[in-house]
Protein 1
Amino acid sequence: MTGLIVHLGAHRTGTTALQRSLKRNAGKLARAGIALWGPAETRAEERSYFYLPENGRFDAPAREAFAAELGATPARRLAISEENILGSMRRNLLKQRFYAGAGARLEAYAQLFGAAPERIGLGLRDYGSYWTSAYGFLLRSRDMPAFEALKPGLLVEMRGWLDIVSDIRRVFPASEIMVWPLEGVRGRLAELIAALLDVPAEGLTALDRPINRS
């Protein structure tokens, strides 16, 4: 049976650089028995079942489609990297809530996966800079309220990274949870990939510059 490793992002924690580094090493990882799904795969038209419906539940056809793909994967492990599993960065800002629905979303994905992932990875960053980074990123392509209008709600938001980890632990008690700070892995993505996927770091190549930096 193919095992699962899931990287949840989060947004603005160096996720894009990690995903591109994973893709760069796809051949080496395949030889190590690891298949990769990044955003290009999870958001592909033929894999629309992976997108959580508005009702917050995956139906039987979606669960069956995932099980069929997982069963047909010749690799011994499937590594999935998809930051939107936790929720929407834009919704976080507009609601001034920090992944408020993460627990319910993880419960839905637990049903989709069918079995607990072996390991779940989560990148963190300084909590205050998360909000300013997310706002700056979204402002490049979306209409957003003035940050000053959002700030009062953000200042009283009580949820933080520990709550996200608690959500993961509650939904996936049998999974190993691996967390790392953005500030601690810059320039060390090959080592991070090795630790996340249980492969030797030797021979892995990684991006040496931030993507979408803010």
Protein 2
Amino acid sequence: MLSNGVARKLPVLVGTASHESALHFVILGNDEGKNLTLFDERRAEAIVSNLTMEHYEFHNHRLITEGCYFEYVYGLKRPNESDVVLSESLMDMFSQFLYHAPAVRLAESYDMLGAPVYLYSFDHISDSLFSEEDHWRGAFHGTDLVFLFDLDVDFATHYSYRNWQIDRRVTEIFSELLTNFARVGNPTPADSDLTKWKRFNRTLFNYLSITDHPQMKTGFHWRGHAFWNRYARKLDAVDVGNLRFIDALSKQLESYQLATWVLLSTTIFFAIILIGLACYCTRKDSDDSDS
């Protein structure tokens, strides 16, 4: 109904946490025998293949997989660099594929239909959720709800007075934004003292970065959008059948070229022999005449 203009174009709120898929690494990484912070290339390749090779959204699974290898595995880790780089890259891959890229597509779809869209990324990294021994810190899946509803988290045992103050500030800001949105359809109406939250623009991909000091930014999780919503879609649209046909023609042409060169070489060889014989016979006839 929204597409044909019959339904009222209600404002839409869309958002993700900055490190959505990291929750699995945070929880499982603490289990004995499950070190999720270290990956070698072989294990990283297997994880990428598991995500892409059978996914229902794709047709050219092999092309998509090879693209992911380059984007998230081969193109990042330099020689002698820590394997932690690969684990963080794989976290980004899952976050971008499962959350960030779909969020952009959803925002674009509603914006194209004329509905006001407000896009956010929950970027507040709370010290209360991590200890000094933790190898990784970030805003994982559900962190925005933890702060919106002031929920207790089982492994959040590191509270200090300063952390509590900062986290409380984030909760107050986030709850005020969503209350305003639910009340008037605008997170920051004219009477709000918070940073002006501008509606989503398909050119800027602008969004509100939610921390204890929220600010507007552009290019919402751009790497994930550029790869999954643009490059991967183009890879999936490639006509693999035509590529195979072209490759077969190319190999056939190479065979013809090789045969041509062989024939030409043979012709030149026999021509040289014939010319040599002709010269020999002419010289012999000349010698016979002289004698």
